[in-house]
Amino acid sequence: MYSEYKVMSKLNLPHKAPVRFAQEVIYKELDKDIAVVSVKFDSLPSLAMIVEAAAQSSAAFGGNDKKMGFLVSLKNIKLLEELKSLDYYVEIFAQHQLAGLSYFNFKVFIKEEKEKVLANGTFIIALL
Q: How crowded is the C-beta side of 123, counted as CA atoms within 13 Å?
């Protein structure tokens, strides 16, 4: 599906190191509400770090909007494989929006094995 991995855009995030994990949008298809974001960690990530990286990746749908988003809910978060790398890709799917709440599904994989999902789940971001 993602035949070429090229940097499409940087993410507009207020996060700074060491908690800024999401780096760049490498694929985006707005008509299907899908984006792939490269994420990088300074140490082997925990499941909490993976979830935060996915939440940061939702900024791929924000454009230059300066609204603040807060992670307010998690559902069916699963670590499916042991994480052994510092670099991953997050595929994020914008399910729907309702009254300032945005619902997203995500899955985490490494570039070479995009069919092998390492973690996945659903979360909600509240925009202020």
A: 24
Integer Cα distance of 20 and 52 in angstroms: 9
d(Cα 29, Cα 49) in Å, to the nearest integer?
Answer: 25
Separation between Cα atoms, residue 127 and residue 97, nearest integer Å: 10
CA–CA separation, 76 and 10 (whole Å): 29
Looking up tokens 């988003």 gives 69
* Residues 100 and 65: beta-carbon distance below 8 Å: no
The alpha carbon dihedral of 47, 50, 51, 52 has a sign of positive
pLDDT tens column, 63-119: 666 677 899 999 999 999 999 999 999 999 999 888 889 999 999 999 878 889 999
Task: Please report how many Cα atoms fall inside a 13 Å half-sphere around the Cα of residue 115, on the Cβ side.
Answer: 1
Strand ranges across the sheet with 119-127: 9-10, 22-29, 34-40, 87-98, 101-109, 119-127, 69-79
Buried b (16+ CB within 10 A) or exposed e, 30-45: eeeebbbbbbebeeeb
